[in-house]
Amino acid sequence: MKGRDMDSAVVEHRTSTSSRTGSEARRRPRRTEAEAAVRTLIEWAGDDPDREGLKGTPERVVRAYEEFFAGYGEDPVALLASTFEKTAAYDQMIVLRDIRLESHCEHHIVPILGKAHVGYLPAERVVGISKLVRLIEVFAKRMQIQEALTSQIADTIQDVLKPRGVGVVIDAAHQCMTTRGIRKPGVSLVTSRMLGCFRDDPTTRREFLSMIGARGSTPHRS
Ligand SMILES: [Zn+2]
How far apart are alpha carbons 209 and 196 in whole angstroms? Predict the structure, then answer.
């Protein structure tokens, strides 16, 4: 019973479409409270939040958070659903590669920087390039782990466009790994999510991976 509850909670989180995730019963702190929290962190780090250079910092950090985490206020399903159109005769793979990815890890709230590659084989619907890029942004501008981010992008495309298959590959460096902790600059994490014919048909998967220039073997599947 507990296991079932957890499963449905995970599914709900994954397909949840707006900022209401987990916050319906939770009061959003006021801006002044958020600024006070940043002030506390500055003091905790060992500096004086009242010195000249830091005076406006809590305000700036809170504004930066509004940008970094703008994805909570957006609905990824509505974003894709609003713009689909019928394909004319195009039944080939559509691939967007080297999309700049900026997210934040949910464990340390430090940047995850890298590239995302998205491909799909349309059935009836296609979507504009800019919408796909925006979809990635909506999920990236939340606190994330890369594996979940990869799945959320692929699953939303699958659920809304219902293509014959989807592939998403993300290759990114985590600053929590490169600038702190084990300190391994140059290491990147590659995650992928393959659905439909991208999962079942090795030829399709190979075509996608060669189009995005993936080196050698199939990336780790999430
Ligand atoms: Zn981290």
Answer: 15
In the chain, domain spans? 19-71, 76-211
Q: Which fold has domain 76-211?
A: GTP Cyclohydrolase I, domain 2 (3.30.1130)
Residue 56: the pLDDT is 97
Q: Which residues are catalytic?
A: 105-108, 146, 174, 176
Pair 36, 61: CB distance under 8 Å: no
**In sequence order, what are the beta bridge partners of 114?**
101, 172
Q: Does domain 19-71 have CATH number 3.30.360.10?
A: no
Q: Rounded to the nearest whole angstrom, what is the distance from the C-alpha of residue 99 to the centroid of ligand 1? A: 21
Reading the chain (222 residues) residue by residue, the pLDDT tens digits are: 344 443 333 333 444 444 445 556 789 999 999 999 999 999 999 999 999 999 999 999 999 999 999 999 999 999 988 655 665 667 789 999 999 999 999 999 999 999 999 999 998 888 888 999 999 999 999 999 999 999 999 999 999 999 999 999 999 999 888 777 777 777 889 999 999 999 999 999 999 999 999 754 445 544
From ligand 1's centre to the CA of 10, what distance in Å?
21
Q: Is the dihedral of CA 138, 149, 127, 11 positive or negative?
A: negative
174 alpha carbon to ligand 1 midpoint, in Å?
7
- 167: part of which helix (H) or strand (E)? strand 165-174
For ligand 1, the distance from its centroid to the CA atom of residue 117, given in whole angstroms, is: 22
Q: Tell me, yes or no, if the two domains 19-71 and 76-211 fold the same way.
A: no
